[in-house]
Design brief:
With about 140 residues, the protein is an alpha+beta fold.
């Protein structure tokens, strides 16, 4: 089921009010993100809130563009696991459930989960659970 599994430590999530000034600041920050060197930048936007996932070392750069009064929550010391599967896996029932169940069985709390494109799941967990989460998902990839 899993083709590739990768993990990255020292990730942070800032959740802030969804306001035009915040949107513009995030757009400016996106232009400064160095994707070629593997920097993390992901935005999930809702009606009232925006959640931005970045490398911990870039939090201060993001905060310099956004007034602290707009930030409602900040989660630090997270790890990001990226699970790549065959693209047509999206037509298979229970894939997300299998992944989250495996993490639950191994006592790993999922802080945030999102899908990006066909066959890619991004999971954020507490940094202290990173290795446990990776090994659990690695075991799932070897299950027949």
């Amino acid at each position: 089921m899993i083709l590739k599994l990768s993990m990255k430590n020292n990730v942070s999530v800032l959740s802030m009010r969804n306001l035009p000034d915040v949107q513009m600041a995030i757009a400016r920050f996106a232009g400064e993100t160095d994707y070629a060197h593997g920097q993390t930048f992901r935005v999930i936007s809702g009606t009232e809130m925006i959640s931005v996932t970045v490398d911990s070392k870039n939090v201060s750069k993001l905060e310099s563009k956004i007034s602290r009064e707009y930030v409602r929550r900040q989660l630090d010391e997270l790890a990001e696991l990226v699970v790549d599967m065959v693209p047509d896996i999206e037509g298979t029932s229970g894939v997300l459930s299998a992944v989250t169940t495996e993490l639950t069985i191994n006592d790993v709390n999922v802080v945030q989960l999102s899908t990006v494109g066909p066959g890619r799941i991004t999971i954020l967990v507490k940094g202290r659970d990173a290795t446990k989460a990776y090994l659990a998902l690695e075991g799932l990839s070897k299950a027949k």
